[in-house]
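Bench log, entry 3. Co-assembly request; chain sequences pasted below exactly as received.
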Amino acid sequence: MVVWLNHRFFGYLLVEMTGFSPERFFNMCSAHEIEVWDVFHFGHTYRFFITVPGFRKIKPLVRKSKVRLRILKKFGLPFFLYRNRRRKFYAAGFLSFLMIIYVMSLFIWDIEFDGNQMYTYDTLLKFCETEEIRYGMKKSKIDCDVLEESLRTRFPEITWVSARVSGTRLLVKIKENEVLSDIPVRDETPCDLIAQKDGIITSMIVRSGVPMVKIGDQVTAGDVLVSGTLPIIGDNEEVVNTHYIHSDGDITARTEYHYNRNIPLFKTIEVATGRVRKGQYVKAFQFSFLFMRPRPEGTSWKRTMEETQLHLFENFYLPVYVGKITGKEYVSYERPYTEQEKKDLADQMNQNFQKKLLEKGVQILENHVKILDNESLCRITMDFVTEEPLGRQEALKMQTTEEPEETNNSNERN
Amino acid sequence: MLEETKVKAASALKLPKDVVLGEVLVSFLGRHSVVIENYRSIILYTDCLIKIQAKNCRVIIGGSRLMIEYYTNEEMKINGYIKSLEFD
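Structure output for the full assembly:
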């Protein structure tokens, strides 16, 4: 390989030799360490390859051995350059290509995060942007240590960060804390429990606070269920003092959910005709170019795109994106829903709502679905009777002005 | 006298004779290629006969379409259709 490159770089010649004693010439060549190879006898002549530096040295040898040399062909870089000496723009193009590649390699064209589970890619990317690290910035301006430090301080759940620049990519590896970093502190601020929904109380366990309702009561949203205001009533049945506590309790109530959905009587159906149109596009910076035949008049197409970023090697990403577009033609028409379809649709909606309610921790007691048709619309009504925990903590207003006065009074008495 | 001592010494010490005595070393690769080491010079070269001078003898390689792939001071590689090898 090295020999091959050496030959190409300095150039080599195919020479034809005739004359008195070719063997002597060959022996002298090897004695003078002149590189000669692929010698073959060809009629009355000998042909061989010789390097250009070697050819410059063989003049005395030629004289001594009384041979005649004729150059048949020239190979290698010096001759190539000489032949193409007029093709300046070709060379300029080649050089500018190398230049562009070099300039491209000075910037960051891809940022990758690895190992993040809690924080999304967008969150981390946005944070990086506030740290002046963004797509398309100069590589030399990135200080990986600073980035690691700031990521760790900004996101306390990240326990280990390793950032490095490889090629035109910034690779950030993250390890997140998998155990809780701190024990949640018990909330001790005074508050009330407020009903967040209308319902009938079915069970009540109050751990602290004054219950304001009892089982079987009908409550509306906003009602106080458990009060955190604890009045201290003296012997004369007057309020002597008021304590404010953090009320707590498990209250369940029977609640109702009603959902209505209107669906049009006609269903739009899109059928693929099977005609497919394919295209490509290239995007670089803000420019993009689309190679695709225009769509015929009066047809509708659904398009899907697949985009990939170009890269030379594994880590040499370029700011050029290539995409494939596939268009599928479809024809849409409308037809009324069939009874079965309506039923399926209602079932599906019902399932969705059930799932949502169960996620909220609501227990479903009764579930009714009705489909009502009228001239213009089809209405699906769903009624749920449910049981769910009630009570939302809400900070209460404290009347602190009275307290100091009372203590003053008591002091006077003493 | 000196030669004899050399030969004896080489065989006693089990040294490679091609190195110590400068004997020619011919290695064939099938019948299409032969490498000759420790040669002195080329005496004759045509496409059907190559005569090579070694230290103590001459090596004659006969065949057809013989071609010297490369040669240096010590080593030479010949390609072609080799029919015979003779010492002279």
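The first strand of chain A starts at residue 12 and ends at 19. The two ends of chain A are 108 Å apart (CA to CA).
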